[in-house]
């Protein structure tokens, strides 16, 4: 396996050298390079989803001052949700172009099966009996995987916490789950494979149910409890504020009533609406923003200031950009309005200019995003590709090479909405034609 991996990396590197020697690199060429890197550099790509550590995107490839390389997995199921979303979008983009989809479909099956693997084998991590019940590991990357992927070291939740039965790490949290909602919803909407649709439906249902617990006094609480140790992983105080949003997202994916406790009463609906309308009170970026938006986009539910989810997400992205000039983006979370349009359509009349997305895509460095320490200085790729990802743009202090899943997701979503010619997105393609006409003039 190691020999095959090294050969694949060398092939990818040779191809990259030819690509970058050109004076101009198109967005499609960058996309193809990033896709090759994802498989051969940022993943243990075994083509067998039953293998521990396989088919999980590496968050970051770290390089220290001595040149030592560490593959770093953190919140791996959060990245896995975006990986599944990207593959579902790629599948539909290829389909609309009349191009082969078999390879992408198979990769998507492995990605979903990987989540099932992490769910199926979680309990034994705490010396219990395994069960496919929604209680999952964030990763199962062993310490000796570095020998197979040609890096010096591995850093993962699995490696650092294995054997510690008191740990709260490497267990589910709601931020892992809301990222998976994006991937699951796009599979349901875009992928015509019934087994895959069944699998993501089952996962979504079990992930939501995993956050629903009846305590010793018979009270129904939104909290995550380790089924082996009985230990509280994520307490009700963390999850309950978003419980109505979790249900909305889960119901879109499953088509089932997933309410629990008081999640559907007027008070908690009001709390959810308050969270939607006031989540930006804190100017410091955090995952709560993103969680509220993911649940809103998948559940097709928006706050004040707009009459559809697309326009609301557009306004929220503009607000964050004004609040956080340090992120150096004209629009934050640019993929979410596109996903909203793909999942739910758009009946408005003010789409985002395609030039906004063209600028995002064209600014991406051909070799991929990075942040490195060299000769006492920090060097990093140009904004908006100067942070860990567009999904968490406030992460401006991680050093290494980025997996570029954000670019790949944005690329496919943009092409589906603006360039596919699908009548459902007629207002977007008309906007693109108008912009191209204006440019020619």
At a glance:
The protein is α+β, with helices and mostly antiparallel strands and 441 residues long. The chain has 17 helices and 10 strands. A hairpin with a 2-residue loop joins strand 8 (370-374) and strand 9.
What does it look like?
The protein is α+β, with helices and mostly antiparallel strands and 441 residues long. It has one domain (2-440). It is built from 17 helices and ten strands. It has helices at residues 2-20, 27-40, 76-96, 102-120, 146-149, 157-161, 174-190, 194-210, 236-239, 243-254, 266-278, 287-299, 309-323, 335-344, 354-363, 405-419, 426-440, and strands at residues 60-63, 69-72, 153-155, 212-214, 220-222, 224-225, 232-234, 370-374, 377-380, 400-402. Strands 3-2-1-10-8-9 form a six-stranded mixed beta sheet. The chain has a two-stranded antiparallel ribbon with strand order 4-5. It is globular and about 65 Å long. The model is unreliable at 1-23 (pLDDT under 50).
Structural class: alpha+beta
What would the average pLDDT be, to the nearest integer? 91
**Residue ranges: pLDDT <50 for 5 or more in a row?**
1-23
Strand content: 5-15%
**Beta strand count:** 10
Major β-sheet strand ordering? 3-2-1-10-8-9
**Coarse morphology:** globular
What is the N-to-C order of secondary-structure elements (H for helix, E for strand)? HHEEHHHEHHHEEEEHHHHHHHEEEHH
Q: How many structural domains?
A: 1
- Rg value: 21 Å
- N-C termini distance: 55 Å
Largest sheet: 6 strands, mixed
Helix content: 40-55%
Count the helices. How many?
17
SSE blueprint and pairings:
Blueprint: H1 2-20, H2 27-40, E1 60-63, E2 69-72, H3 76-96, H4 102-120, H5 146-149, E3 153-155, H6 157-161, H7 174-190, H8 194-210, E4 212-214, E5 220-222, E6 224-225, E7 232-234, H9 236-239, H10 243-254, H11 266-278, H12 287-299, H13 309-323, H14 335-344, H15 354-363, E8 370-374, E9 377-380, E10 400-402, H16 405-419, H17 426-440
Parallel strand pairs: 2-3
Antiparallel strand pairs: 1-2, 1-10, 4-5, 6-7, 8-9, 8-10
Helix pairs in contact: 1-2, 2-16, 3-4, 3-7, 3-16, 4-8, 7-8, 7-10, 7-12, 8-10, 10-12, 12-14, 13-14, 14-16, 15-16
